[in-house]
Write a structure and sequence with these properties.
The chain has 453 residues and is of the alpha/beta class. Helix content is 45%, strand content 19%. The protein has a 6-stranded parallel beta sheet, with helices on both faces. A 6-stranded parallel beta sheet has the order 12-11-10-13-14-15, sandwiched between helices. The protein starts with a strand and ends with a strand.
Length: 453
């Protein structure tokens, strides 16, 4: 039976189907910090681990043909690497239960179709709820999103406990106000040009309609019709033809202004049609201006975090320094507003209204960049919730000292513990840290600390 632990814990198999054997040797394939953290977590839990960093087909065959491997774990940051290694292992030893890390749901589906008995996990889905919790409320440790609703996790009398959501979600009036604010203050230059041209034309037309009604005594409908004819150049204004000299001069000025604003409107429209657009003027792709969460870094964690926050009803905007990053197009397809720029630049942060934001999450793959982002954000908003990604999978005092500038999440340590737990037969969907220990969340929302030997 195949299963994919997809976005925010939703899967395609039952709990019993997902469990791997709890005893025997674990063959861990992969290099990098995620594999390192998974190996440490397996050893802490008392599992017997055999590691292959960058094996070729012969190495994998030799390791599996020894006959003592109970399960296979493939841990890689790159989907194509995970896919290839899983396919090679399935060809060599078809019956060996496998746990594979895959981010893209389409790649996961292809692997499930090709390899029976594989269990696919997304590192991003394991750790993202632990970022969302403190971003929404500084007292929260994590959130638990499920198909039936979402609950929060906070410190209780006997440890972490589930509680009802504690954060505020914008209501209909707030969303309407935010939409009008986005129209009034467009983010990108092409939108500003377009809105300025349209607003100018509307203002000039409205002024001319009012003056025509008051001066010439023309009914409202006739005034609208007359001004519209002149605006679109399909006919003259009878009211102006028979009016006084000053009214003719007024009509001449409004016609020239309309012509100028029409040129501005056309320029903005052409610019938006020809240039790639990552933000919109209205709707979900508009850059929010108040009570939003800023997510810096549009990697696996950043994209999943944006999608989770939006599912929870929270306005969100993503900041990415590399316009060619593959998840930029994915975010555009999801109608997520994306701003290209440096998250540590105070100019960029001011442009996306950090002073009125509820939180910022620095989740780039560069720890030093995340620290710089957190420091820059602190300089712009003293009461801002700050969450940053830091750590290499080990619990170090250097990472702990960063709690002075924000809430720290070590994605490799969290994901490694969850992968190790599932590899040894447990059911874990999310992970979050608390008092130096990793806590795991099961399919039913049960919270338990990761058990070391």
């Amino acid at each position: 039976m195949c299963a994919y632990i997809g976005p925010h814990g939703r899967d395609t198999g039952s709990v019993a189907d997902r469990k791997l054997p709890s005893t025997g040797v674990t063959l861990l394939i992969g290099e990098g910090r995620l594999a390192d953290a998974t190996e440490r977590a397996l050893a802490e839990a008392g599992g017997e681990v055999r590691r292959l960093d960058e094996p070729d087909d012969h190495d994998i065959r030799e390791a599996l043909e020894r006959g003592d491997v109970a399960r296979l774990v493939v841990a890689s940051r790159f989907d194509h690497v995970s896919l290839r290694l899983a396919l090679v292992a399935a060809h060599v030893s078809p019956g060996t239960p496998s746990l594979v890390t895959i981010f893209d749901a389409d790649v996961a589906e292809h692997l499930q179709d090709a390899v029976p008995g594989v269990l696919v996990f997304s590192m991003a889905d394991i750790v993202v709820p632990s970022f969302a919790g403190p971003a929404l409320d500084s007292a929260l440790l994590s959130v638990i999103p499920r198909a039936g609703g979402v609950t929060a996790v906070r410190q209780g009398a006997d440890g972490p406990e589930r509680v009802a959501p504690t954060w505020s979600v914008p209501g209909p009036l707030a969303r309407l106000s935010a939409g009008l604010g986005a129209i009034a203050r467009p983010f990108d230059s092409s939108s500003r040009i377009l809105v300025a041209g349209l607003a100018g034309i509307c203002a000039v037309v409205a002024a001319e309609i009012v003056v025509t009604m008051l001066v010439e005594g023309v009914p409202l409908v006739d005034a609208i019709y007359t001004v519209a004819k002149v605006t679109v150049t399909v006919g003259p204004s009878e009211a102006a033809d028979r009016g006084s000299d000053w009214f003719k001069l007024f009509s001449a000025v409004t016609m020239l202004l309309t012509l100028g604003f029409a040129a501005v409107l056309t320029a903005g429209l052409v610019n938006r049609l020809l240039d790639p657009r990552l933000t919109g003027i209205v709707g979900r792709s508009a850059v929010p201006r108040r009570d939003h969460v800023i997510v810096v870094g549009l990697g696996q964690v950043g994209l999943r975090l944006c999608l989770l926050l939006r599912e929870l009803g929270i306005p969100v905007v993503a900041v990415e320094s590399n316009a060619a990053a593959k998840n930029v197009q994915r975010a555009k397809d999801q109608r997520l507003p994306v701003v290209i720029g440096s998250g540590s630049s105070q100019r960029t942060l001011r442009q996306i209204s950090i002073g009125r934001a509820r939180a910022i999450a620095a989740v780039t793959s560069d720890e030093m960049e995340n620290i710089a982002i957190a420091v820059a954000a602190r300089g712009e908003g003293k009461d801002l919730h700050v969450v940053l990604r830091a750590g290499d999978g080990e619990d170090t005092s250097e990472v702990g000292s960063l709690h002075q500038i924000g809430v720290i999440r070590d994605v490799y340590r969290l994901a490694g513990a969850a992968l190790a737990a599932v590899a040894l037969g447990a059911d874990a969907r999310e992970a979050f840290p608390h008092e130096g220990r990793v806590h795991l969340v099961g399919a039913d929302g049960t919270i338990a600390p990761f058990s070391a030997r």
